[in-house]
Amino acid sequence: MRQFASRYESVRSVAVKRLLGRVGFATVVLLAAAQTADAHIVASRLGDFYAGALHPLTDLQDGVLWTALGLLAGSLGATHGRWLVLVLPPGLLLGLSVGLSVGSTWIAPLASAAMMVVLGLLVALGLRINVAALCVIALVLAFMRGVVNAGGAGAATDRVLFGAGLAMCGYAFIALITALTIAFRRLDAQPSGTWRDIAIRACGSWITAIGLIAGGFALAS
Known about the structure:
By secondary structure, this protein is mostly helical. Helices cover about 80% and strands about 0% of the residues. It has helices spanning about 1-35, 40-45, 50-55, 60-75, 80-100, 110-125, 130-150, 160-185, 195-220. Helix 1 (about 1-35) packs across helix 9, helix 4 (about 60-75) runs antiparallel to helix 7 (about 130-150) and helix 4 (about 60-75) packs across helix 8 (about 160-185). It starts with a helix and ends with a helix. The relative contact order is 0.18.
């Protein structure tokens, strides 16, 4: 009976792993293929500030990229995280102002996919980069996403309120993800090599996969 029970548990474990693998793959494909939701109704309902704050949350690319950046900063330590939350909002505002002036369509989806791959690999490989390099990456990413989010501002939109909402959303999102990552890693006594560190790296590998699939969709279209 014990042998039969052991075989049953082994078969069930393999089946569960296969199911989780299929569900994970399907989730990655859906996330990569998802399009930006129409959030302009927010402006008419709640105002331009909330339209700017909620607009990036309607685009999965913003969510994935900001999560990846927060994971990277959190895995590097509190000092990197403090610089990140200071750099991201000005980058968003700069990109927004450029996007409102010259348009937002020149930032191709392939560029966002490439950034996902880069950030995902940095997290997955556990590479250590200095504060200056992180700030450069954050500024480039924030500028790109600021330009893209400029497409959510209509002709009658108050640009100051929209920009303030966008910057506040970026600040809060990045601060939350970075703080959660730092707290998650500090639950272990050892600084690296623990299962928590491996879990963060696994998230980086999934972000890389999402970026590769998103890039494939961008090239196919």
